[in-house]
Amino acid sequence: MCGRYTLRTRLNQLLQIYGAQSEVELTPRYNIAPTQDVAAIRATADATSRELVLLHWGLIPSWAKDPKIGNRMINARGETVAEKPSFRAALKRRRCLVLADGFYEWRKEGKAKQPYYIHMKDEEPIAFAGLWEHWRGNGLTIESCTIITTSANQLMSDLHDRMPVILSGNDIDTWLDPQIEDADTLLPMLDPYPDNEMEAYPVSTLVNSAKNERSECVEPVDA
């Protein structure tokens, strides 16, 4: 799964990398948690460009009666995303990139759980494959998202049996193309990312609490 991550990359760098425009402001984040607003890239409404927007993390289907359902939908399994009623419409028409530069996972060590920070060896930003939805009800309008997960690569398998889907290269352009709706084109992209381009190291249990939002969260510690 993916339940915590970071985004420290500067906004202007993200806009340049992903060819997007934005009116939002970003500050460095060291411990992003579910139900918070997160940075995502998607096609604009007229499909002529890309925009960086803030979305509520925890997808709320348009048909949901209670927005609290989103608390259980922070992740979507890639193996079933084309079939589940909560996600299949978004897979066709509302795909996005959830932006990060690393994420956390916990490994059980005896009775304790040791958090690890996983990131790219070259320190480049990460584009998680995401879906977004537009919900209205109770006088509210909420745009929300979920992160798609897949089976773990060799690096991640020591920590957890799942990992977020990471997109790169031409897959990013395909994922964000609103003209593409065919699951046969999209689903093959939801594979584990090559582990030889990633690394993981143990970090402080500070990250266990979402209230801790500072650089110490990503500093290495002795496991």
What labels describe this entry?
mainly beta, globular, 223 residues
SSE topology sketch:
Blueprint: E1 5-7, H1 11-18, E2 20-21, E3 29-32, E4 37-43, E5 50-57, E6 75-77, H2 88-93, E7 95-100, E8 102-109, E9 112-120, E10 126-137, E11 140-151, H3 154-157, E12 162-164, E13 166-167, H4 170-176, H5 183-186, E14 198-202
Parallel strand pairs: 2-5, 5-11, 6-11
Antiparallel strand pairs: 1-3, 1-8, 4-5, 4-7, 7-10, 8-9, 9-14, 10-11, 10-13, 11-12
Give a concise summary.
This protein has 223 residues and is mainly beta. The protein contains 5 helices and 14 strands.
Detailed description of the structure:
It is a single chain. The protein is 13% helix and 38% strand. It contains five helices and 14 strands. The protein has helices spanning 11-18, 88-93, 154-157, 170-176, 183-186; strands spanning 5-7, 20-21, 29-32, 37-43, 50-57, 75-77, 95-100, 102-109, 112-120, 126-137, 140-151, 162-164, 166-167, 198-202. Strands 3-1-8-9-14 form a five-stranded antiparallel beta sheet, with no helix packed on it. It has a five-stranded mixed beta barrel with strand order 4-5-11-10-7.
